[in-house]
Amino acid sequence: MTTLNILLGVFGTQEMILIVIALLLLFGGKKIPELARGLGKGIREFKDASKGIEKPEDEKK
């Protein structure tokens, strides 16, 4: 069983709807895409940085 299945198995439909409503109330409809975009950029930068760490090792061989 994967980690994603375990995490999603904990939350049912009602809990997911409640979480979405809470996020909309806290951040508003306009702020959520900005937060997701920022998260995506952060993940992309992390992946690029981790590839940069791997490249010098490949060049040594």
Please provide a written account of the structure.
The chain has 61 residues and is mostly helical. It has one domain. The protein is 87% helix and 0% strand. The chain is built from three helices and no strands.
Topology, pairings included?
Elements: H1 3-10, H2 13-27, H3 31-60
How would you summarize this macromolecular structure in one to three sentences?
This protein is mainly α and about 60 residues long.
Features:
61 residues, mainly alpha, 3 helices
Q: If you average the pLDDT, what whole number results?
A: 79
Q: Give the termini distance in whole angstroms.
A: 37 Å
Shape: flat
How many DSSP-defined strands?
0
State the share of residues found in helices, binned by percent: over 70%
Q: Outline the low-pLDDT stretches.
A: none
Number of domains: 1
What are the secondary-structure elements, in order, as H or E?
HHH
Q: Could you describe the largest sheet, including whether it forms a barrel?
A: none
Determine Rg (CA atoms, Å).
Answer: 18 Å
**Strand content range:** under 5%
The total count of helices amounts to 3
**How would you classify the helix and strand content by structural class?**
mainly alpha
